[in-house]
Known about the structure:
Blueprint: H1 4-18, H2 23-27, H3 69-72, E1 80-84, H4 90-99, E2 104-109, H5 112-125, E3 130-134, E4 147-153, H6 162-172, E5 173-187, H7 198-202, H8 211-220, E6 224-234, H9 238-241, H10 247-255, E7 259-268
Parallel strand pairs: 1-2, 1-4, 2-3, 4-5
Antiparallel strand pairs: 5-7, 6-7
Amino acid sequence: METAEQLKEVVKEKYGAIANQPKEHNxxxxxxxxxxxxxxxxxxxxxxxxxxxxxxxPDADLGLGCGLPTQFAKMKEGxxxxxxxxxAGNDAFIARKVVGSSGKVIGIDFTxxxxxxxxxxxxxxxxxxxxxxxxxxxxxxxxxxxxxxxxSNCVLNLVPNKxxxxxxxxxVLKPGGHFSISDIVLEGFLPERWKQIAELYxxxxxxxxxxxxxxxxxSEAGFSNLVLQKEKEIILPDDIxxxxxxxxxxxxxxxxxxxxxxxTVYAEKPAxxxxxxxxxxxxxx
Length: 285
């Protein structure tokens, strides 16, 4: 059983390699983790189509998402937006288009290669109100009450301590701020062996938790007005399943009630926090 730090190193190593892969390779795999499609077939397993959104930049699109959180994020001109797991900058650039020159976008990513690529994209575009910071989203390099909006796309499932991440989101949001996050969750239980495969963990699936538990963590962190904005089932083709399961295991998986889903969820930080417990060191967030 890997420790949390070991799992983080797996993610950093895998996504460091992914940063230099073409979008087609990533979209054809489990969130870019492995070249897992057989033959000449190419699947878009997780990602939704971004190219029709204003601000889209193809150089920043690595095909790693599992939703369109920026489409649901209720961003406004002048907002400060924080993008967690910003990768090459895809969602950050779309957010910048919405918030305009009077707004600001801050991307945070764990992987140095992703930060390097995102910064190069921003420099090439000449943007001066967008920045990318390397850091762990369990301990964000941001001051409290900084953001109007937090977005994230298929990233929190990779983080071992999801309670800590949502606590950090609560901390960095301004009172009355909100988030829109796309992520992978489960209904039913995956075969235990999937959870032992590092490549699949870095590919979004084995690090996912039950949907009810995920939504429960959000509520426990103190957020209100939780809304499930979008939900879709992720169908894994046989040639991908065949990399991890034998024929009997594939048949049992398909016959069972286990489902892998992409959800986009919205919630708000209350404008007034009556708990008086979210200061550093208070121990309840």
